[in-house]
């Protein structure tokens, strides 16, 4: 996502002109178009999920491949339908992601081992990702690109840190061996559905509470540090305020979701 967002602000290719396109998403109309980060995200999520599970679980590969292709294709087509991208934007996003997956695939296992073994990994990751956000390419006018990129990288940093905390402090059980693991899909009973809804509600409430708390605290500290009037919308968009408060907020949210919420579920007996 960082590569895609940064490429947009470097190439500065405009979004499709209207008419003949009717743009349905006004919020991001100020962003540039090439490549489509929605196409990149959909392709990355579906195909990395397929690649990382096909040797660990037993399921028809053709079915998994079909689902990955259908999911990524639907997202790509939606970007054309909403008038946000050209066909070239979408194709460019898919090709960039395919190249990125091919280049990084040999390092996936190494990254997993670093995440669970090295005590310095989450610290280094947070520093590097924050540095990338703070040094994001500047634009001639404000657009939500930098803020969205910071949010995405912060969530990535938080999830990785949360997984590291779970492994380092042994808050989760180790996966069984050997692979592949044969899993039976449990029946969707009333009890299972009720339990799922309760766990979901608890998780959402706690996560939203943490988001609001950390966001307010971080903004208060930054406003005070830079002597800015509170609730100043323009000040919120300043680099030295926007990047730190979003990074701290969504890193905290992701750590909470991956570490504290499962602990709370176990404490409440929601297993």
TrEMBL record:
Transmembrane segment boundaries: 59-80, 87-108, 120-138, 150-172, 192-210, 247-268
Residues in Phosphatidic acid phosphatase type 2/haloperoxidase domain copies: 1-105
Matches recorded under InterPro entries: PAP2/HPO, PAP2/HPO_sf
Domain of life per record: Eukaryota
Keyword Membrane attributed: yes
SUPFAM superfamilies, sorted: Acid phosphatase/Vanadium-dependent haloperoxidase (SSF48317)
Keyword list, A-Z: Membrane, Transmembrane, Transmembrane helix
PANTHER family: SPHINGOSINE-1-PHOSPHATE PHOSPHATASE 2, SPHINGOSINE-1-PHOSPHATE PHOSPHOHYDROLASE
Annotated protein name in UniProt: Sphingosine-1-phosphate phosphatase 2
Species this protein is from: Echinops telfairi (Lesser hedgehog tenrec)
Gene (name only): SGPP2
């Amino acid at each position: 996502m960082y590569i895609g967002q940064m490429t947009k602000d470097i190439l500065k290719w405009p979004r499709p002109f209207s008419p003949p396109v009717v743009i349905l998403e006004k919020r991001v109309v100020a962003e540039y178009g090439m490549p489509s980060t929605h196409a990149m995200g959909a392709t990355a999520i579906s195909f990395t999920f397929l690649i990382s599970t096909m040797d660990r679980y037993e399921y028809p590969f053709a079915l998994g491949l079909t689902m990955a292709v259908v999911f990524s294709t639907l997202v790509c087509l939606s970007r054309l339908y909403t008038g946000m991208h050209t066909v070239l934007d979408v194709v460019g996003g898919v090709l960039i992601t395919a190249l990125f997956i091919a280049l990084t695939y040999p390092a996936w296992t190494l990254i997993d081992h670093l995440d669970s073994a090295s005590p310095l990994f989450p610290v280094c990751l947070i520093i590097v990702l924050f540095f990338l956000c703070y040094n994001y390419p500047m634009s001639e006018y404000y657009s939500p690109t930098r803020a969205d990129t910071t949010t995405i990288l912060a969530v990535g940093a938080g999830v990785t840190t949360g997984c590291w905390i779970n492994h380092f402090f042994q808050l989760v059980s180790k996966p069984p061996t050997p692979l592949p693991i044969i899993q039976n899909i449990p029946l969707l009973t009333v009890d299972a559905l009720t339990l799922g809804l309760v766990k979901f509600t608890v998780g959402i409430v706690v996560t939203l509470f943490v988001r609001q708390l950390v966001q307010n605290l971080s903004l208060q500290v930054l406003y005070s540090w830079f002597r800015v009037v509170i609730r100043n919308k323009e000040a919120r968009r300043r680099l030295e305020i926007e990047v730190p408060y979003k990074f701290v907020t969504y890193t905290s949210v992701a750590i909470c979701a991956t570490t504290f919420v499962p602990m709370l579920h176990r404490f409440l007996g929601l297993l």
